Amino acid sequence: MGKVRVKYVTSVLREHHDHILRALAVLDKALSSPSPDPDDVYTLVQFAQRFVDACHHGVEEYVLFQGANRAGFPLTGGPIQVMVCEHGVGRYLARVMEELYHAWKSGDKEALRDLADYARIYIDHLSQHIDKENNVLFPMIESTAHEASSSKTVEQIERENDHERWIAELDRVAKKYGL
């Protein structure tokens, strides 16, 4: 069990949030175009699953939340439980977006409209979620725990989930949309 500095972890997570908010803006712009590029949409849906959920939520759940809990911050009945539940909602929305993407690629014209609707829900959900973490949860944890025990490191989770690759993919697609 290693020790992690809480403020270091929250600063990395805030950087992740900046990337995620950028990806949400690109997803909105891509799906708002009259003829969305299927490859761009798929990359952004995969970003939601691979970067947002596996990498970013992995750091939150396995490093920050677990460490904060070990330092005395309650896991249940408080903001961590709410955030973990919201992660589940995000996972569900990302899975539905992927299913709708495949239906759209298979020729279902209605699936694109539904995909855009689910993407808007996902964008709203994650935007609000990030605001709560940045402005409520992270400051609460930072004020109560300065170091925490964790079985994994931020770098280990980022490496396991191809953090750098997904940031490069986001940069590539965002550039096409001027974001």
TrEMBL record:
<dbReference type="GO" id="GO:0005886">
    <property type="term" value="C:plasma membrane"/>
</dbReference>
<feature type="domain" description="Hemerythrin-like">
    <location>
        <begin position="11"/>
        <end position="141"/>
    </location>
</feature>
<protein>
    <submittedName>
        <fullName>Hemerythrin HHE cation binding domain protein</fullName>
    </submittedName>
</protein>
<dbReference type="Pfam" id="PF01814">
    <property type="entry name" value="Hemerythrin"/>
</dbReference>
<dbReference type="InterPro" id="IPR012312">
    <property type="entry name" value="Hemerythrin-like"/>
</dbReference>
